[in-house]
Amino acid sequence: MNWYHIFDATTEKWLTLAIFAACFILILYRNVKIAYVSLAAAALLIALGIISPTSAILNKVDWDVLAIYWGYGMLAIVFRESRVPALIATHVLARIRKEKYALLFICALAAFLSSFMANPVIVIMLAPLAIEIAERLNASLFLYLVGLAISSNVVTTVSMVADPPALILAMATGMTFLDFYWFLGKVGLGTLSVVGVVVALGTLLVQFRHLNNTVNIKEEKIPITYGPTIIFFISVFTLAFIPMKHPGIVGFLLGIASLFIGRKIIGEMMREFDWDTIWFLIGIFVVIGTVESVGLLKDFADWLSGTGLKSTTAYLAILTWMSVVISAFVDNVPYTILMIPVCDYLAKALGVSVWPLYFGMLVGTGIGGNITPVGATANVLACGMLEKRGYRINLWEYMKISIPFSVAAVLSVHLLLQWLWL
To answer: What is the C-alpha separation between 369 and 335, in angstroms, rounded?
Structure first.
């Protein structure tokens, strides 16, 4: 059954553009819960006859992304409760003697764990450890929590499940878990991103070089459970080695298994999970899908390719650093969904491979959120913890840490993409 149409194609395009712009402005300023904004925009597009409910729900919403996001979100909660991260932290910190290395370890641990879990969960998980060390050493908590937050957010492209934008790209292009490390006979985005993370952590070591207080933390015996770790490795193996049309099945089963493991706290798990992001994703998938259907993304790509530039090198730089700047202020999920088809159109217009454009855009999108205190959820959480403890968030002091860290990560990956992929 065909859905009704009230307006002609040109009018539909202008109405879609207006709704899209209003949606993004409200998302940017966050005066209204962003899940409400995206769902309202999607509902308005359906009500105006621009897209049908069937097409919106069945064709535009990527249910595989939602299922995997839910599954790994559930896993993150039971993994934290298993106490494995706490055991790792206390084991290593008991062997570190200088404050700068203890702080660097916390940041490195945050980066490692966030490669497989949502970064807000990592901030919540490791913040008590960072606070305890800062209080024992009578040190500034600002460095600890800001370092923790930006480190948890720098690994957004290290693995397929590190962050929603990476997952969205993987599902949109059919990439597997291992494709992030070796792809089309070349070093993959995840491997290149690891280099970027190491370089970024190196900038923190430079910034923390004066923190030479002696650390004296005794190793604790922490009882742990292995169930969450086991199902995590099973899920990664399945995504990496078993081809399937709908990888979201893995995410769904992972979520069910996590609920079984955490059945004693199932109510807490359901309350703690970030349901707002699920609803937000449903709405924004429909909005961006409609923007593409009416031809606006092709128009934007035609405009970019019509600027007179013919160099893939130039477009790689534009997409990478434009994404850094925009993602410092705009949520990276809708931006990623928007830019994937733009990269497609642009690559076709230039007659070049789309993969370096995808990768540059995604790296800039993921890490750009680190630039400002509101650019990523992890940053917002860390700054909220600081304000509760009487710290005033000075934007310049924050950016003195975040800008060198983020630019170093993006620049190193950008240069490697230029060298290996163009």
So the answer is: 12
DSSP code per residue over 293-358:
HTTHHHHHHHHHHTTS---HHHHHHHHHHHHHHHHTTS-HHHHHHHHHHHHHHHHHHHTS-SHHHH
Number of H helices, E strands in the chain: 20, 2
Q: For residue 147, give every residue at least 6 positions away whose Cβ sits within 8 Å of its Cβ, in sequence order, or none.
A: 103, 106, 107, 204, 208, 401
- Phi/psi at 340 (5° precision): -60, -50
Instruction: Note the pLDDT tens digit of each residue in 22-60.
Output: 988 887 666 788 889 889 999 999 999 999 999 999 888
- Burial string for 12-40 (b: 16+ CB within 10 Å, else e) reads bbebbeebbeebbebbeeeeeebbebbbb
How far is it, in rounded angstroms, from Cα 376 to Cα 374?
A: 6
- Give, for 33, the enclosing helix (H) or strand (E): none
Tell me the torsion sign for CA atoms 295, 296, 301, 306. positive
Residue 340's nearest CA partner among 351, 354, 329 is: 354
Which tokens in the block code for residue 40?
Answer: 């309202």
Distance CA 97, CA 329 (A): 38
| Residue 352 burial by Cβ neighbours in a 10 Å radius (0-12, 13-18, 19+) | middle
Report field, pTM of the whole predicted structure over 0.90: no
CB 120 within 8 A of CB 381: yes
